[in-house]
Amino acid sequence: MDFLTKRSEDYSKWYNELVVKADLAEQSDVRGCMVIKPYGYAIWEKMQRTLDDMFKETGVQNAYFPLLIPKSFLSREAEHVEGFAKECAVVTHYRLKTNETHDGVVVDPAARLEEELIIRPTSETIIWNTFKNWIHSYRDLPLLVNQWCNVMRWEMRTRLFLRTSEFLWQEGHTAHATREEAEQRAQKMLKVYAKFAEEYMAVPVVQGVKSETERFAGALDTYTIEAMMQDGKALQSGTSHFLGQNFGKAFDVQFLNKENKPEYAWATSWGVSTRLMGALIMTHSDDNGLVLPPALAPIQVVIIPIGGKPEQVAAVDAAVAPIIEELKQKGISVKYDNADNKRPGFKFADYELKGVPVRLVLGARDLENGTVEVMRRDTLEKETRPLEGIAEFVKNLLDEIQQNIFMKAKTYRDAHIYECDNYEEFKERIKDGGFFLCHWDGTAETEAKIKEETQATIRCVPFGVEQTPGVDMVTGKPSKARVLIARSY
RNA sequence: CGGGGUGUAGCGCAGUUGGUAGCGCACCUGGUUUGGGACCAGGUGGUCGCCCGUUCGAGUCGGGUCACCCCGACCA
Fold this sequence. Notes:
By secondary structure, the protein is an alpha+beta fold. About 35% of the residues lie in helices and about 30% in strands. The chain contains 15 helices and 27 strands. The strands form 7 sheets. The chain has an 11-stranded mixed β-sheet, with helices on both faces. Helix 3 packs across helix 7. The longest helix is centred in the C-terminal third of the chain and has 25 residues, at about 390-415. The protein is globular, with a radius of gyration of 26 Å. The two termini are about 20 Å apart. The protein binds one RNA strand through strand 13, strand 16, helix 11 and helix 12.
């Protein structure tokens, strides 16, 4: 077992402490909710902007829909309501009043709502209720909208970023004239997510399709990207659903086709959430703290001066000014930290904890020699370079770090993906984590048995894996394909 | 909702057979420091989760209650 999996018993605690110490987020006093701190939010903002641009390149536009959903909307699609009913927060009243002892407030029983409102757990229902008014002709299609918002799901147990009662996300909702077009859109958005995860977050993902039991409530197909965390568990990092005509029919969204015949619209929805922050942290971090991919780091380069006397710092101030300017011109975000209330050693440790990819250090020694010390966060390697041409060197180094942490994560993940055909062996090995490619007979019974006996679930039927028929490792019945099985968050 | 645990300063904790509140970190002031998480000196900060009881006296004992955390069921 390697050192990261060895830590798995304390992984949860380690993760939680890291999130707090690195200044990303903290538990709110409000049950199950999270406060995202400015540094954490800065990373999320960069994710948002990048994803938003990628969506727009595929023709998607942003919009915004209400937070509150009438209860009756939610129950229009039978499977959908069943999937979410257990975790909905409900607004029942619209007014408070002073209590009898005049030292507090109580809910005014006279202000009961005729129809309760649900705080959105997801917005399919209210959006399709609106789409009904927007869609009349095949010329109105496809309709491609996305919203950035918060949603609430009353979870029993919560963990910072990975599962909180309220979370931030984007949810894309599209309407199409044909089944094929909707299916293609669902798959296209999955590709966008996979590209974002791998190229920006440097998190390798397995793409695939969910089994029937793991599907989104109301979907015909759910596509997913699954990432492996350092303890060998899977994290569902993004999903894209082909919803068929379920919502079109439930909300009576019909359009006239070219033949002047009415048809129900075809739907997709797709989302990623602040859970991606969890994926980012749990994929790259080490014992010194966070390791951020340069593409998403709010601070890409930090410069720290050495020397306590004001004139020493002033000399460094002057020397770094042109370098800062040059780095900025190359589009690199730089922080020059010459604060006098923290010693250099503290700053070194602190910026490592926060995952800043590159650190430059300058002291009197360097000013004399025309050099600078460069440290890269991913490997913690230090080297002294000439000051001349340092901006160009840093730019290349950032690219190299981005590549390196992706390759490191991919190598780690690939080393923990196993094929397994023996259930007894599987039951033993799954305890150490990892992804298992196993034959499955396609029944929900087998799936449930595996889950009950091992806590592992079928994450997806992966794409791009060469499939040969075999026999189910549990029942011995024929199997068409290998599926990805893992314990998950 | 089951099983376990914890509530004492902003955070982390100690508090003996019941005797009136303490340590570390952080914070403030002054000084010396500054190439890997500085040191010295001084200082600010608490109706011990809440209620009731036992007692001359409760952080400590008893009963109740609330909150939070961990392990399950649920889940992006």
